[in-house]
Amino acid sequence: MTYPLLSVKNLTKYYKKEGSLFSPPEDEVLALDDVNFDMYEGETLSIVGESGCGKTTLAKLITRLIEPTRGFIFFQGKDLISLNPGEMRKIRRKLQIIFQDPYASLPPRMKVGEIVGEGLEIHGLFKGGKKMELVKRVLGEVGLNAGDMNRYPQEFSGGQRQRINIARALILHPRLVVADEPVSALDVSVKGQIIKLMQDLKENYRFNYIFISHDLTTVEEFSHRVIIMYLGRIVELASTRKLFEKPMHIYTRALISAVPHRKALRNKEKFILEGEVPDPRNPPSGCHFHPRCSFSQDICQKERPFLKDMGNNHLVACHLY
Q: Which of 31, 67, 125, 211 gives the lowest tally of CB atoms within 10 Å of its CB?
């Protein structure tokens, strides 16, 4: 039996902004609502959805940069939520994150060699000359050179800074890298280079990606399976091929319809979303998507649909099925 590398169970997160002297406290904001999925060795699992669907919150929860309201995260069989700071530090070697903004995610007063090699010292792996040797090697593998070690992040372009972020994550030889929209802030001409680099490094280092994006073209090329999220919930989960060839949820169909030149849907009915994502402080009852769905029924407004397996591990949360 194959056990998951990562298993997320009933993961829920509400944010609550505290009030101040001049303003009352805000209502709780729903970020994630009872999210469940497994991820297995060797795969790239992509998470897709509009802004505000909970993708980045999920990335931060998996890497324990924030704490959940409730739920469980098992990584290599260990419950991350129950670990104390010392125990979690040991796990962080195997669980790394690449942030969306290559400008904000690098400390401006540290040189590149210090940034990339910092994790080696934190985890007590290598210091001095051996550390510098490893830093030079990994910089070369991401397309930079040894001379870049003594430069500061502000001396590099956006694409180069993201290469530094990738090097910082990979030098610890992680088992799972969570990439939170790693190319969304980059020029179009650079995006393809970074995606190709990430694919090559996955093969060389033999790790796994959770790839968070709203770019379905990249997701289709890069992923083994895809999770579609809407307002904090998973609405569809399937292999990449099945999802793009036969999307089931109306929201998924609309997202794929919006991709230019999608052959699979070229001669099929197009789905155009109307309206905006609802306010997460006051989400709709029942199915969160029902106010924007042209197929909405009474049950959609009253009861939440849960994920059902429609065959071959193609899961969808919709009352139409």
A: 67
Q: For residues 134 and 173, give the distance between their C-alpha atoms in angstroms, rounded to a whole number.
A: 11
Query: Domains in the chain, please, with CATH?
Result: 6-94+172-316 (3.40.50.300)
User: Between residues 271 and 90, which one has the greater pLDDT?
Assistant: 90
Per-residue confidence at 186, pLDDT binned at 50, 70, 90?
A: confident
The DSSP bridge partners found for residue 37 are 8
Rounded mean pLDDT, 139-156:
93
Pairing of strands 233-239, 176-180: unpaired
Nearest by Cα to 61 from 232, 274, 281: 232
Contacts of 1 (CB under 8 A, 6+ apart): none
Using left for φ > 0, alpha for ψ between -120 and 50, and beta otherwise, residue 307 falls in beta
Residues whose CB falls within 8 Å of the CB of residue 16, separated by 6 or more in sequence, listed in order: 25, 26, 27, 28, 29
Predicted local confidence at residue 1, as pLDDT: 57
Percentage of the chain lying above the pLDDT 70 cut: 93
Which two tokens mark 173? 């030889």
* Mean of the per-residue pLDDT values of the chain: 89
Tokens of 135: 């830093």
- Determine phi and psi for 12, rounding to 5 degrees: -135, 140
